[in-house]
Fold this sequence. Notes:
By secondary structure, this protein is α/β, with parallel strands linked by helices.
Amino acid sequence: MRPALKLSLSLLLLAGCAPTAITAPAPVAIAAPAGASGGLDQAMERRIAGIVAGMTLEQKVGQITQPDVRFITPDEVRQYYIGTVLNGGGAWPDMDKHATVAEWAAWSDAFADAALATDMPVKIPLLWGVDAVHGHNNVSGATIFPHNIGLGAANDPDLIERIGRATARQVRATGITWTFAPTLAIGENRRWGRTYESWSSDPALVRRYGEAMVRGLQGELTGDGDVLASAKHYLGDGGTFNGVDQGQTRATREDLLTRHGAGYLGALDAGVQTVMISYSSWYDTAAGQDHGKMHGNRDLIAGHLKGELGFDGLVVSDWNGIEQVPGCAKDHCPQAVNAGIDVFMVPEDWRAFIANTVADVREGRIPEARIDDAVTRILRVKMRSGLFDRPAAASALTGRADALNAADLAREAVRKAVVLLKNDNAALPLQAGRKVLVVGASADSLSNQTGGWSLTWQGTENTNADFATGQTLLAALREALGADNVVYSIDGAGIDVSGFDAVVAVLGETPYAEYNGDVRFPTPVQHSLQHPGDLAALQAVAGKGVPVVTVLYSGRPAYANDLINLSDAFVAAFLPGTEGAGLADVLVGGAYDFTGRLSFAWPGSACSTGEGADDVVQFARGYGLSYAHPASVDRLPLPPTPRTCEG
């Protein structure tokens, strides 16, 4: 795939709604990022070397092992010298989705205390990692920000840095000091179920955002509101063939490093301390060579990342990612250790991993020097983050419920992260005091509004009541327009539309994370095919002489020409998070204008999935209307939707 032509907004508006020609961007130059290694602190390095020299092999392997907290107890952390744990999506204290911040803090503190109760000569503090990818999204009551795809439309690195700072405060409130974010993928195919985790198809924007987010999350690394960031997923996760999650990225080495690696250059410039490896694999199209799974790629991990780019932090695997390396299993993978991974996310099979890795060293399959290097990097990151000097629980934010609240910032982010694709006949803004009919199942669904990685891993199995904060768009419209002026119908059936001044149809995908969101080739990718109820609700209210404003929640650029044609105004809201009031701000009154611009090309057919030469692009990257700069959108073409996209 190749990205779309960078056009000025004026050119995009002149283009109207015609399919847009696209060209490739200039490559991003590779250079060792300034922040990749700020120069090692020699006193710290001597201290680390002394600790490593005094450790047994079992203690070292314990440090590189990362179980999930659902499968290990604090006492086992002490017994096995565990260096890091994680809580995966849907893991909460006592498995209570509504656990309080104080309960989270007590839970993390119990594990931290256990790590300091070993019989080691030097006690080594514990690292706890969590997927806080759009706010501290696993925690009830935490403000949830828009997903990356929407934030990309804001084109505002300062906003991204402020979101990073707010997220770090939320994480520290629960006693945790490491988040597995940001995702730096260059999303190339909207079939991919993690497209929403990509900021843009533009490597330059991803690089700027990667730097900003890492600076926001990490701060100076030692402050009460600082957490470790993790640049992920290294490398090429957004470029897999046909958008298959965990699939094969087919690219030249230059394209892999310059295009897909652009975000890592920004993150390293900001001094990111951890990097997570991708489930995907790489096929070198220039050399005709299959390099296999990234988890086993020594050339790119030890060679490029640690060598050429000078990264001196730690490299962590993804959840059971080592088992996908040929010849490996969930609990055994000397190839991945030798490739340069330092921390192994082995959630359930951690005991066997420890035993197998110890045996690999003793039997010569893994040099002990490689284990020493991994432990050195882990200790370096722990020292840089201040854990050796001050426990995580000592933060002034620990246990503070108010630290979870970032509603004002998230509301601002929502306003900036939505894109106005159409606004004919001045259907927007809505005016206070007018009667409005709201239709669509997504209008009153915080699950659809927040998407995946929200309270649970997939973002499913949640009700509005599970979100202890936030507001649906329906509630926000009632507040902005007056509750008596808003009538809600899920499907619009049997409603006399003529009694209203406007209709707002809120349509959306249902939540997913990772591979559950894939639309596998050759299935056409058209919103109304995947969600026919949305089309039916819109058809029930369209064409009745009353302006129809459609708001679409989606984790990908959605082929929706049929929906757009049925609408007088159309807003791409992506996945805005908990603060529906930010949407109401731009929909009602006109006090706030639309400033968001597409960070991906918007498709013009059901089988167009990216920005390649054969794709039909309806709205190019950079397109977006506003109240200040309106433009008419003619009726969009409706090419026949084939049964399959083959041929």
